[in-house]
Write a structure and sequence with these properties.
heterodimer, A: alpha/beta, Rossmann fold, 9 helices, 37% helix, B: 477 residues, 10-stranded mixed sheet, 23 strands, 22% helix, 35% strand
Chain lengths: 257, 477
């Protein structure tokens, strides 16, 4: 069964500063599948993304998470990353004085080292980078700028997706990648994500709005409310939600759980 | 301790002691001790008189207390003012240098043995109170460049020394400079003649080895008209429970269109985690841009010492002269640093640039103290200052005291300052990309210091980055 599911979340509880945010989330993601997790503000969507990546501010108080057959919660954040889990941050941080390409090469090499592969020197890496940029149709204009420093909202989100493309994760979690993007930027980013979809790669797309899912069409949609998944369905669930609003699922969710 | 701070501690890497027979004078300071030092160095009479004058003035002075550092009283009578390995003070070739000394410097990454020398760098190796070897002297002499221990310069080039010694930092400049003038034992002397670009990097490595001693070195660099020189100093000391005093004086003189680039990588023993032991690094460094369009640039990476008290400055006397100060100061554990610069604009159209990066971790206290003074006649002077502080953890401190004194209304002054904290979020972001916490911190800190590191000579930029990594190990987890 571990073959079927890359990620298995069972009854996950998590809290931040003593307040419980996740109250029993269960979710299974198969290899190559795209799952959207939707929900109103404060429902725990971003918390779920942060907990999966291992942010130290969140405390797991119950439940289990298996990733590729391993106990995910036992792994340090960097080990999760090296094992192929990638989080596209909602608010990527800036690192002054370090160029994007240097940062990315360090990340690639940390992962390669973990896999027992030889590290890439700057020239080899440049080649890899150029190929990736070409594949997703972007130029290299911000590779020599400091990581996220002075980037516009759209540039930051694009940069996250570029990192995703270069690091080639097995599981990519996109945390509100659409927030703060205008429609053109949204399309560009979604297009790149679609290029990166593959039968070997799974996605968990966390979003508040249905519009992102017009461009990144998910296999499954889950609705999170008050720390639990209250409804799951196919891609049409997102459209229903758009039409009826989150209030529509709340009472149903409460009854179901 | 926050989770960022908790981590294994890396001991100071250069804390070993070389087991070598040495001779030292008994602790205590008096005119007799100064006469003894002067005699050991085979100095001319005028030098002894100069020392005694400084000493007599020092007796009338009191130790400064204005710096933002705390330490117990120093007993100047408990310090030995001269210690030297037992060997002939001046050896003709490196073959005669005690192998233990060669080994010591090799262990410190400063090979001075003929076959292992650093390419492109001439090194003067100072061990306690004496210079034990100076490499590439003959090669430099071909260009007319003099690079030798200052004790030798006093004997061999007395006219040059007399002309410049004490003209930038007078013997009565301050308490520690006066003390140094009275008792200095060795240091480096460099003279770059007119129009010569020094073909090698000049470098001095200072090593304290003996216990209960102070190190008082004196460096004098003279760059004649149109000459260029890049000089680098490094230093380290054994791990000891006692505090040892290091009070150096450095004087630079740049004549018309001359350029001096002076870089320091300071790694004296910083004391242990609880603040026991470590070097008191109380030094006076100053450069005089005497000539028109001359330039003096100070770059310092300060990672060691229990206490640092240091303000490398520039007297911008020549019209169109330029002074620069690039600094990274790190305080971890219980280290305290009060450091910065003084830029005194005297000539017309003089320019100065100050870039200071302070990093505090553990219980470290880091103070930037700087003075930019524009004198009445300094028409068209410009200064740009940037002071950035980075905090790691919540027990440390960063303080900034920028003094500005402008007496000419045509001056243009710019000052920028920032304080940032390495946060969980920055570390987490790096970790999520597969980097370890150590690599994340090293990357963030190096990025923060980039503007200063790019000023270091190539060969030493890497060393500085590594040193910074070592100094901060144990501050982040």
């Amino acid at each position: 069964m571990t073959d079927r599911f890359l990620l298995e979340i069972e009854d996950l509880h998590a809290s931040v500063e003593g307040t419980e945010i996740l109250r029993g989330v269960s979710l299974r993601v198969g290899t190559g599948e795209v799952h959207a997790v939707m929900g109103p503000n404060g429902s725990g969507k971003s918390t779920l993304a942060q907990v999966l990546a291992g942010h130290p501010a969140y405390k797991v108080t119950g439940g289990s998470v298996r990733y590729d057959g391993k106990d995910l919660l036992e792994l340090d954040p960097e080990e999760r990353a090296r094992e192929g889990m990638f989080l596209a941050f909602q608010y990527p941080v800036a690192i002054r004085g370090i160029t994007n390409s240097y940062f990315l090469r360090s990340a690639v090499n940390a992962i390669r080292k973990h896999k027992g592969e030889p590290e890439l020197d700057p020239l080899d890496f440049l080649q890899v980078l150029e190929d990736k940029l070409k594949a997703i149709g972007w130029d290299d204009s911000f590779m020599n700028r400091a990581v996220n420093e002075g980037f516009s909202g759209g540039e930051k989100k694009r940069n996250e997706i570029l990192q995703l493309a270069v690091l080639e994760p097995r599981l990519a979690i996109l945390d509100e990648t659409d927030s703060g993007l205008d429609i053109d930027a949204l399309k560009t980013v979604a297009q790149a994500v679609n290029m990166l979809r593959s039968p070997q790669r799974s996605f968990v797309v966390v979003t508040h709005y249905q519009r992102l899912l017009n461009y990144i069409v998910p296999d499954y949609v889950h609705v999170l409310a008050e720390g639990r998944i209250v409804k799951s369905g196919g891609k049409e669930l997102a459209l229903t939600l758009e039409e009826k609003g989150y209030d529509w699922v709340k009472p149903v969710g409460a009854a179901v759980s | 301790m926050t989770s960022i701070e908790a981590q294994v501690l890396q001991p100071y890497k250069y804390g070993f002691v070389t087991d070598i027979e040495s001779e030292s004078v008994p602790p205590g300071l008096s005119e007799d001790v100064i006469r003894l030092i002067s005699a050991k160095k085979g100095e001319p009479e005028w030098m002894l008189e100069w020392r005694l004058k400084a000493y007599r003035h020092w007796l009338t002075m009191t130790e400064p207390t204005w710096a933002n550092v705390k330490y117990g009283p120093i007993d100047y009578q408990a310090i030995s003012y001269y210690a030297a390995p037992k060997q002939r003070p001046k050896v003709e070739s490196l073959d005669e240098v005690d192998p233990k000394l060669l080994e010591t410097f090799e262990k410190l990454g400063i090979p001075i043995a003929e076959q292992k020398r650093l390419a492109g760098v001439a090194v003067d190796a100072v061990f306690d109170s004496v210079s034990v070897a100076t490499t590439f002297r003959a090669e430099l002499a071909k260009f007319g460049v003099i690079f030798c221990p200052i004790s030798e310069a006093i004997r061999e080039h007395p006219d040059l020394v007399r002309q410049y010694l004490g003209t930038v930092v007078p013997t009565n400049d301050n308490f520690f400079a006066a003390l140094n003038s009275a008792v200095f034992t060795d240091g480096s002397f460099a003279f770059i003649p007119k129009g010569v670009r020094c073909p090698l990097e000049l470098s001095t490595y200072f090593r304290i080895n003996a216990s209960s001693t102070g190190q008082f070195e004196r460096t004098l660099i003279i760059a004649e008209e149109g000459s260029h020189v890049s000089y680098l100093e490094g230093c380290s000391a054994p791990t000891r429970d006692e505090n040892q005093l290091h009070a150096a004086v450095v004087e630079l003189v740049a004549l018309d269109s001359a350029q001096i680039k002076y870089s320091t990588i300071q790694n004296w023993y910083p004391g242990d985690e609880a603040g026991k032991g470590g070097i008191y690094n109380f030094v006076t460094k100053r450069g005089a841009c005497r000539g028109r369009n001359s330039k003096i640039s100070w770059t310092q990476v300060e990672t060691g010492s229990a206490i640092t008290w240091k303000y490398p400055g520039c007297l911008l006397q020549g019209d169109g002269s330029i002074g620069e100060f690039y600094s990274v100061a790190v305080t971890n554990h219980r280290q305290q640093a009060d450091t910065g610069t003084k830029m005194i604009h005297i000539g017309k159209n003089t320019k100065s640039t100050i870039v200071s990066k302070g990093i505090s971790a553990g219980h470290g206290q880091n103070t930037y103290r700087g003075l930019v003074k524009i004198m009445k006649g300094a028409e068209g002077a410009r200064n740009y200052s940037q002071c950035d502080s980075m905090l790691i953890g919540d027990q440390c401190g960063a303080h900034t005291f920028p003094y500005i004194d402008v007496r000419n209304s045509s001056a243009i002054m710019e000052h920028e300052a920032s304080t940032s904290k390495i946060g969980e979020d920055q570390i987490f972001y790096c970790k999520q990309r597969g980097l370890s916490a150590e690599d994340a911190v090293s990357m963030i800190v190096n990025g923060f210091c980039k503007e200063v590191f790019k000023e270091l000579p190539m060969e030493f930029a890497v060393e500085a980055q590594n040193l910074l990594g070592i100094s901060l190990e144990g501050s982040v987890g």
